[in-house]
Amino acid sequence: MKAPGEPYDEAVRPLYEAARDALPVGAEFFDAHTHIGHNDPDGFTATPDEIVAGLDRAGHARALTFAFHEPEGYGAANDAVLAATAASGGRLLPLARVAPGSEDAVAEARRCLEAGACGIKLHPRSDSFGLPHDAVEQVVALCAERRAPVLFHAGRGIPRLGEAVVDLARRYPDARLILAHAGISDLSWIGPAAAELPNLFFDTSWWQVGDLLSLYSSVPAGRILYASDLPYGSAMFHGFAMLRCAGAVGLSEDALAAIAGGSLERVLAGEEPIDLGPAPGAGALGPRDVDFERTASWLATGCVQAWRGNDPTEALSLAALACHRADGHPVAAQIEGLVEVTLDALAGGPEHAGYAVVGAMAAQVLAGTAVAF
Q1: Which of 44, 193, 64, 45 is CA-nearest to residue 120?
Q2: Selection from 58, 369, 32, 359 nearest residue 212 by Cα
Q3: Which of 15, 86, 253, 333 is deepest in the core (most CB within 10 A)?
Q4: What is the pLDDT, as a whole number, of residue 1?
Q5: Residue 230's closest CA among 2, 1, 4?
Q6: DSSP of 49-66, one letter per residue?
Q7: Which residues of the chain are in CATH 3.20.20.140 domains?
Q8: pTM of this structure
Q9: In degrees, to the nearest 5, what angle opens at C-alpha 217 toward C-alphas 13 and 170?
Q10: Quick one: how far is CA 37 from the chain centroid?
Q11: How does pLDDT run across 294-308, given as a tens digit for each residue?
């Protein structure tokens, strides 16, 4: 059995292990976003043992987990999640997933919370619902009674998600509402709302360095929760990306420990978030380097090309050329090496190109943060 990301994320291990030195002694990673199941139409699957193996690969302690998309409904899948987490020795904790468009959505959420689920996962895109939505309102109200979290998929192409979730956070202050995937659909405006609302959180399960730097600079550190999106992601990559980007905006050791796991502990306990001060602001990033910006752009383009089944060689090669610098910057050599590793991995015909390009993903994080270190 291979852990998610293995063996391709081995290229990231030195970066991840060096970045981990920034964590204070005793801090542990508690992942806010992992999946198990085998019926998702996208073809990804994961067993509980594979998720635990992914945690172990990066030395992470625990994770929240929930069902993949289940076109036939979530009752059996939620039961499987509850059983798997109960058998995990505390390594995995359950979120229940419901489809608000189904007649039993609220009843299923209540059933699972009473059976031991820590909270609820909602996915507007794969479960085909928009916001505002009456069943979502009822689920949030139900979680507010328990001071429990509701995790919203908040990736691309979901209109009015942030606006609706901010409204829910204001009206249900005892619910803990989490925007997954760094809340990328709404990061351009949502920072002030996050500062105002102590029950609005963001998980870090995303990969593009520009989006991640926007998250860490615009949202208070006490509202950010580490997440990997296993099995889609690699715990080593996401651990590295979190530490590197948070460090780039100057977050403290206390903030890093809270993001890694301390804040999620408080969310699940129904406690108020840790006050780690305001968001540092974009000015914390300092000056930018146009050639590293070009490099990050070409690397991101290459990753997307690979995921879509296209040849990323040209884009990745242009990224390497953008790093062929007169100043001999040490990060440039690291990026060139990661591009080479990525091209070799892709040439091997990987089952999931998303794993094979993890070196390029790490390279664009390096490029986007090179000036800060």
Answers
A1: 64
A2: 369
A3: 15
A4: 61
A5: 4
A6: HHHHHHHHHHT--EEEEE
A7: 8-285
A8: 0.97
A9: 115
A10: 19
A11: 999 999 999 999 999
